Amino acid sequence: xxxxxxxxxxxxxxxxxxxxxALALFxxxxxxxxxxxxxxxxxxxxxxxxxxxxxxLHGLGMSGAMFMSSIAAVWYLLSRYIKPYAGLMWSxxxxxxxxxxxxxxxxxxxxxxxxxxxxxxLPFASSIWPAWATGLSVISLVLLxxxxxxxxxxxxxxxxxxxxxxNLLGWQYFTSRQPSVPxxxxxxxxxxxxxxxxxxxxxxxxxxxxxxAKWLNDALQFDALLLKNVVFLFGHxxxxxxxxxxxxxxxxxxxxxxxxxxxxxxxxAISWNTVxxxxxxxxxxxxxxxxxxxxxxxYLGQILSYSSAVPATVVxxxxxxxxxxxxxxxxxxxxxxxxxxxxxxxxxxxxxxxxSTIALNTVLHNTxxxxxHFHTYFVLGYLLILLGMTFHITESxxxxxxxxxxxxxxxxxxxxxxxxYLGGVEGVPRRFAGYLGIDSHTLSATAQLLAQIAAGxxxxxxxxxxxxxxxxxxxxxxxx
Length: 480
Ligand code: HEM
Hints:
Layout: H1 8-41, H2 48-78, H3 86-109, H4 122-125, H5 131-163, H6 172-175, H7 185-216, H8 224-258, H9 266-278, H10 295-324, H11 333-355, H12 358-364, H13 369-393, H14 399-426, H15 441-471
Helix pairs in contact: 1-2, 1-15, 2-3, 2-5, 2-8, 2-13, 3-5, 5-7, 7-8, 7-9, 8-10, 8-11, 8-13, 9-10, 10-11, 11-13, 13-14, 14-15
The structure holds protoporphyrin IX containing FE.
The site of protoporphyrin IX containing FE (HEM) has 25 residues, from helix 1, helix 2, helix 13 and helix 15.
């Protein structure tokens, strides 16, 4: 049902501003990624403090930009069903932009560089950056988190208003094929994602408020392992649900191209409820090497990682297959980028499951395998879905340009990721500003060579991104 027809053009404009901001940020952050890879290749010589400030901004900024874009796109798609509360979404946008500006100053000017984990007590224990940089960066993270929370609660509240809170999790499908309150899959997946997201954003906010307290009173001491758990509960869940929100959009948009409905049913409802049940514990796989962590949690980490990933992936892959198989769909830019994005998600997800297997994690932990897997489901997964969604929402028409961009980005992205994977297999450590300090000469030379090749592929990826940006917008002749 379309309840907001008249408000749609305004909401579309607002969404385009959110998505435009996220893509502009993305472009700058890819450039920073290139700088890091060139530094690791030995072609640039950034001082370590600058490298780690860049790495921190890149990691936090990318996660934030992607999350922000996923919320905006889903909000736009849902605004056909629910009251959109555009004013609240503007306030959220403002908080996010303020947070992003503060973070840029804290990192690039103040050289705040503890990495995206901002792992306690590192933000307070370094003599490299001044106290104001810690304070500004942490306050900026609180602003970002508040903006995200506002957007998530706005969407959840509005969905509850429209469908009734009791129906949002799709439990009515457990017992009936045609329940009295039907909900589309985008609603269920958004709700599952945002419940997990809102809970963990609150946990993140508490964490950063403790950081502010520590910044104001250095005598305060906290339990480092407990805070590490909270960081990962927050960070891991936010990046996880960014991907899920992208998938929610695919459930909603792909049928427009295949001409086949993608309805809710019991299997979809059960699979996504499984995600809600397990996703909050999946982050334990980040703490396998923390031997002070209770052993039960380590085993739970492996079980929950598998159980939160497998059902949703299987049901989505089958769903996409059923959508496209013999549908006669024209493989234009939007459905193709969705299809490739889901493929990238599955490949990155498999690499993540490999890493979350305890026996393999003992080998791959803190090697380049880790950035390899999460970059896969972002660069060749969520990002491709985002490009498709943006192309669709902006009603862009330059198909052949967009197709050329997609091909270039997929080739550039694959080459870039492959070098991370090969580095991981060789045992190249992650988060090294340069590789000359590695004891083994052979490993150091291999790591540098892989970084050089990767940098070349990143340039190709960037070219593709620029072509894509130039493909956005309607053609002038069709502007009316
Ligand atoms: C083509 C685009 C990208 C390039 C060239 C790039 C490059 C890099 C490089 C070189 C590193 C450091 C790896 C290491 O030695 O540990 C890194 C880390 C990271 N990147 Fe990217 N990246 C890209 C896209 C993304 C995207 C889309 C995300 C989305 C979440 C992302 C999130 C991160 C995070 C979270 C880290 C870890 C930072 C840390 O360890 O504190 N990157 N990236």
